[in-house]
Amino acid sequence: HKFANYLTFGGATNICLAIFLLCYACLLLGMSPLLSQEAPVVTPTHRGEVLQPVVYNIKKNLAPNVAAENAQHMAENVASAIQKKIQTFRKSEGVTDSSLLNKAVADMERLRKYKNYQRKKQQNSEEIPPEKH
Length: 133
What we know:
Layout: H1 3-6, H2 11-31, H3 52-61, H4 68-93, H5 97-127
């Protein structure tokens, strides 16, 4: 027996296979630069260590004219501006750590009560026998 007796390919099948192989080859070609990239650290020990390769590539490729000290200064300015905005918002809204904690405790208690209510409701519906007609 010949292989052609078990499986035959028509013109449409060959075209579909060719398109698939072409797309697959393009995908492999497009992904090949990723093989040369360094893998990120699996278990970071310091804050921001996972993003270090990303930041390094951005700094290397997009901002070659910016001095490292200038970039560090800009990052510190952005961080302090965001921190000031958060502090201003918390003061204007009267938000404190203790009020947030109290709100979280109250929300959790409300959810527990609702869950217990649903559980009791389900138990009561299971205990009532169905009516006979």
